[in-house]
Design goal:
With 111 residues, the chain is an alpha+beta fold. 39% of the residues lie in helices and 9% in strands. The chain has five helices and four strands. A four-stranded mixed β-sheet has the order 1-4-2-3.
């Protein structure tokens, strides 16, 4: 069993520094944080705009409009999983448990 807390990002906005920290521990491209199926993503033509934007501008965009953030996200102090890819989640969570890390002093958050 893994204990975690759930956060509704439509009710409690994600802050700039949170996205920056999650990006750092995720080992993912910042593009992976964007909900590409969201109508706003399409309407604002972000697919074309993102390659010309720096990280700071992308952090600001995600923190100012949480609808653009891909969910679910599992955040721990040492890693973050963005979007649901069952094999990736299973591998990471089983590894953490088998390796004995047990999310050391962590309370994972699910968004």
């Amino acid at each position: 069993n893994i204990h975690y807390s759930v956060r509704d990002i439509s009710a409690k906005k994600v802050k700039y520094h949170e996205i920056k920290n999650w990006h750092k521990v995720s080992n993912c491209s910042l593009n992976d944080f964007f909900a590409t199926e969201n109508p706003m993503y399409k309407r604002t033509k972000l697919k074309e705009r993102l390659p010309n934007m720096g990280n700071r501008e992308q952090y600001e965009m995600l923190s100012s409009n949480n609808q653009l953030i891909k969910c679910p996200i599992l955040i721990c102090s040492e890693f973050a999983l963005i979007g649901f890819r069952m094999d990736e989640w299973e591998e990471k969570l089983v590894c953490e448990k088998v390796c004995g890390k047990e999310f050391q002093n962590d309370n994972p958050k699910l968004l």
